[in-house]
């Protein structure tokens, strides 16, 4: 429950004005700083770029630029784009999330129907390491919590794809997004839609 609350708080901070999130240790070690709306802090107490939406990050940069200009520094114009960062910028939490789900579902789509024990072991290792190395610490801890509650099912492509779809829907629920119909997973990620629009 604590992980879900932490995940929800961080995701809300990425989209809610005036809210920032710190880890417990960072909060205890530092005096509270005022951060712009939606900034999510890393475990080190500094703003976490991969945990924060581009709009919130750009607002922070714009706010800093205004303060620097007021202090006599040369100002650089920054414009927040609601649709996300330009393609050549580090990904924000939303871009990272979309790209990650695309990668994970694509891995599931190419996973064998009847994997060997080695392939099953490799996938379990990958998912475990992935959950520890994911750049957004709040998202990583949430995924680890999900895996502790719902052990990854890797004995077939169908089992893994359905487990992954449920994991994705778990995140969608927390973010207030619509859930995906997991019975249509194959069409979305492997075979293409029956109406032929992917052919």
UniProtKB/TrEMBL annotation:
Q: Which reaction does it catalyse?
A: 2 R'C(R)SH + O2 = R'C(R)S-S(R)CR' + H2O2
Keyword Mitochondrion in the entry? The reply is yes
Can you provide one Gene Ontology molecular function annotated for this UniProt record?
Answer: flavin adenine dinucleotide binding
**What is its cofactor?**
FAD
Name the keywords, alphabetized.
Disulfide bond, FAD, Flavoprotein, Mitochondrion, Oxidoreductase
Gene3D superfamilies in UniProt: 4.10.320.60, ERV/ALR sulfhydryl oxidase domain
Keyword set includes Flavoprotein: yes
Compartments it resides in = Mitochondrion intermembrane space
The EC code for this enzyme is: 1.8.3.2
Q: Where is the ERV/ALR sulfhydryl oxidase domain?
A: 89-189
Q: What is its main location?
A: mitochondrion
Pfam entry (one): Evr1_Alr
* Signal peptide (UniProt feature, chain positions): none
GO annotations of cellular component type? mitochondrial intermembrane space
| Entry-linked InterPro entries | ALR/ERV (IPR039799), ERV/ALR_sulphydryl_oxid_sf (IPR036774), ERV/ALR_sulphydryl_oxidase (IPR017905)
Q: What is this protein called?
A: Sulfhydryl oxidase
């Amino acid at each position: 429950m604590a992980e879900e609350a932490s995940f929800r708080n961080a995701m809300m901070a990425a989209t809610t004005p005036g809210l920032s999130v710190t880890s417990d240790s960072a909060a205890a070690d530092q005096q509270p700083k005022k951060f712009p709306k939606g900034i999510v802090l890393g475990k080190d107490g500094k703003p976490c770029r991969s945990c924060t939406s581009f709009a919130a990050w750009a607002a922070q940069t714009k706010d800093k630029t205004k303060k620097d200009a007021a202090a006599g520094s040369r100002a650089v114009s920054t414009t927040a784009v609601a649709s996300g960062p330009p393609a050549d910028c580090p990904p924000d939490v939303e871009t990272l999330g979309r790209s990650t789900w695309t990668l994970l579902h694509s891995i599931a789509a190419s996973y064998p129907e009847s994997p060997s024990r080695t392939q099953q072991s490799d996938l379990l290792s990958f998912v475990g390491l992935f959950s520890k190395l994911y750049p957004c610490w709040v998202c990583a801890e949430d995924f680890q919590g999900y895996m502790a509650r719902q052990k990854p099912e890797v004995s077939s492509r169908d089992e893994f794809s359905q487990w992954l779809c449920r994991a994705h829907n778990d995140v969608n629920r927390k973010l207030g997004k619509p859930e995906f119909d997991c019975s249509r997973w194959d069409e979305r990620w492997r075979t293409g839609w029956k109406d032929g629009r992917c052919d």
